[in-house]
Design goal:
Helix content: 40-55%
Radius of gyration: 22 Å
Strand order of the largest sheet: 8-7-6-9
CATH superfamily of the largest domain: Tetratricopeptide repeat domain
Structural class: alpha+beta
Distance between the termini: 14 Å
Strand content: 5-15%
Largest sheet: 4 strands, antiparallel
Order of helices and strands: EEEHHEEHHEEEEHHHHHHHHHH
CATH class of the largest domain: Mainly Alpha
Shape: globular
CATH topology of the largest domain: Serine Threonine Protein Phosphatase 5, Tetratricopeptide repeat
Number of strands: 9
Length: about 350
């Protein structure tokens, strides 16, 4: 049974949680890439295309020889860790197995434990736990640290540790430094292009909501993509501009391109879900909102619109769960009042 509030579709939020309308009757999130903001950076998918020209270590893959050079591990040690199922390459390049950035995190943690003479069975247990945790926390990469007390590996972020750390720390590194090492050691020729792409992206994101500068913003995003074809968030924000200009078809295509590079990007999933909901495809909207929440469980607006979509599918029980989750994240304001009315 529908309610008087069914037409309230919640616009998304950028990393600073500002809300803006895209055009009358519709809305779409906007994502900035500025100092201190939370960027949409995700690990590579389990199977990747040849990304030997990738400029983002998070979406690149690496050969055993490159990993050995980067981390100071011998290729024979890498093969031993692979055979023991402690850390194995989970990506591909040119049909061959290759290491993703997530694999590099696990390998650096493994190396630190082995150097500290931790027993191999304890290393295996620790790294197994780490790999289960990483998909949930590597998006805000600049906040992430990996620490160990010699037996356990603990992921620590700005919101606290995932497991209490006790005893003498024998391992402590922030993941951003690993990404920087990848660029410095393995991809020095790409650093300038990546930096230029981010600078263009930043310039575009500062002007892409003003109709008078839409053309300039689109041109800057296009240049950023030419410098770095793997800058997924540039496709997302370019799609946002096209959406604001009424070109939903191109916008959705650009969001899909972003997901082709970064399948876990919550912003692109959210935007596709929003467009689907706007056009009455609640089932597709549910799928994309749920995917956004897999990557970012605190994405309040995704909870709001997922609840709306579930109500349209008459799944009132699940909808109520997400109304409550939204209110736990955003307890005040107009949208919170709307959510409460749905719970009456």
């Amino acid at each position: 049974m529908t309610t008087p509030h069914d037409d309230h579709r919640k616009e998304g939020r950028d990393p600073k949680r500002r809300r803006r309308a895209a055009r009358p009757g519709a809305a779409v999130i906007h994502v900035n890439f500025r100092s201190g903001d939370r960027i949409a950076a995700a690990p590579a998918p389990a199977t990747t295309p040849d990304t030997s020209t990738s400029r983002d270590p998070l979406t690149d893959v690496f050969s055993s020889r490159e990993v050995a050079r980067l981390l100071g591990l011998s290729e024979s040690r890498l093969r031993s860790l692979d055979r023991a199922a402690i850390v194995s390459p989970t990506g591909t390049r040119n049909g061959r197995r290759a290491y993703t950035f997530q694999d590099l995190i696990a390998l650096r943690a493994t190396h630190g434990l082995l150097v500290s003479r931790v027993r191999i069975r304890d290393v295996a247990a620790a790294i197994g736990a780490l790999k289960k945790t990483l998909p949930r926390v590597t998006r805000p990469l600049q906040e992430l640290r990996i620490v160990s007390d010699g037996r356990r590996v603990v992921v620590r972020g700005n919101e606290g540790a995932f497991e209490a750390v006790t005893g003498q720390l024998v391992l402590d590194f922030d993941v951003t430094s690993l990404r920087d090492d990848v660029v410095r050691v393995l991809r020095p020729d790409t650093a300038t292009s990546a930096r230029t792409a981010y600078e263009l992206y930043t310039r575009a994101s500062a002007i892409d909501e003003n109709p008078a500068t839409y053309d300039e913003a689109e041109a800057l995003y296009a240049q950023a993509i030419r410098f770095d074809p793997y800058l997924a968030i540039a496709y997302t924000n370019l799609g946002n501009v096209r959406f604001r200009r009424g070109d939903e078809e191109t916008a959705v295509t650009l969001y899909a391109k972003a997901l082709g590079i970064d399948p876990l990007q919550p912003e692109a999933h959210y935007n596709i879900g929003y467009v689907a909901l706007e056009h009455g495809d609640a089932a597709s909207a549910v799928t994309h909102f749920e995917q956004a929440l897999v990557s970012d469980g605190r994405f309040a607006d995704a909870h709001f619109n997922l609840a709306m979509a579930l109500e349209r599918l008459k799944d009132i029980g699940r909808a109520r769960e997400h109304w409550r989750r939204y209110l736990s994240l955003e307890p005040s304001g107009t949208w919170a009042d709307i959510a409460r009315k749905h719970l009456l």
